[in-house]
Design brief:
The chain is an alpha/beta fold and 228 residues long. It has one domain: TIM Barrel (Alpha-Beta Barrel), CATH 3.20.20.70. The protein has eleven helices and eight strands. It has an eight-stranded parallel beta barrel, surrounded by seven helices. The longest helix has 15 residues. The structure holds erythose-4-phosphate. Erythose-4-phosphate (E4P) binds next to strand 7. Pfam families: TAL_FSA. This is Transaldolase.
């Protein structure tokens, strides 16, 4: 199970990497806007951070970067995808799972540029993503569960389909927009390859009342023991 951080804030990325060793990053236009940086300034900052941490390279630390979501034409998406990919081998081109997006992902993958088909809300969309060779597929969890849907079967179905047709290991399932530690666990049990979530979700996952209580109990014992 890999953990990606869903953020474009370099200080959050640094903290998550140093504290609990995240395996990659996902971003979207909202995250880039919230970083307070321009799109290309963020990419440059990300490149510097990758270099600083010796994480450069195609097989290492993928960073999903979303193309302009206004594009509907595959040609525009491919052009922007190529431009982003030329900046760093770590950059994975994130594209909405719409008609033009699926075509663009296939063409970019044929050129050796990795893609992540995003805004996936059904197993049917996940099949299309895998059939077209996308390296990652991002089924959204939080949005569906906020709408009253339980996502366990949804992820299980995608995982089963990928197993049945040999897509497992070729297209990795990134459970995206994960909002709670319970959703993280549900996705892991259901067959996700990767979770992507905000820093707050990961930090919440470290917390348990018994852990806090236990640390207190052991501190009392330690403090009442001769340790020299
Ligand atoms: C995932 O890859 C997306 O960046 C993200 O999860 C989108 O959803 P959110 O911004 O509502 O969390």
């Amino acid at each position: 199970m890999k953990y990606f951080l869903d953020s474009a804030k370099i200080e959050e990325i640094r903290y998550a990497f140093d504290t609990f060793g995240i395996d990659g990053v996902t971003t979207n236009p909202k995250h880039v806007m919230n970083s307070g940086k321009s799109f290309y300034a963020f990419l440059e900052e990300m490149k510097d951070w990758l270099k600083e941490n010796h994480l450069e390279g195609k097989e290492r630390f993928p960073v999903s970067v979303e193309i302009d979501p206004n594009f509907t034409d595959a040609k525009d998406m491919i052009e922007m995808g190529r431009k982003i990919a030329a900046l760093s081998e770590n950059f994975v081109i994130k594209i909405p799972c719409i008609e033009g997006g699926v075509t663009a992902a296939r063409k970019l993958e044929e050129e050796g540029i990795r893609t992540n088909l995003t805004l996936v809300f059904s197993p049917a969309q996940a099949i299309i993503a895998a059939k077209n060779g996308s390296m990652f597929v991002s089924p959204f969890i939080g949005w569906k569960e906020a709408n009253g849907e339980d996502c366990r079967q949804y992820i299980k179905d995608i995982s089963t389909i990928y197993d049945n047709f040999g897509y497992k290991g070729k297209t990795e399932i990134i459970c995206a927009a994960v909002r709670t530690p319970k959703q993280m666990v549900d996705c892991a049990v259901a067959g996700a390859d990767i979770i992507t979530a905000g820093l707050d979700v990961y930090l919440d996952s470290f917390k348990h009342a018994f852990t806090t209580q236990g640390v207190g109990i052991f501190c009392d014992a330690w403090n009442n023991t001769v340790t020299e």
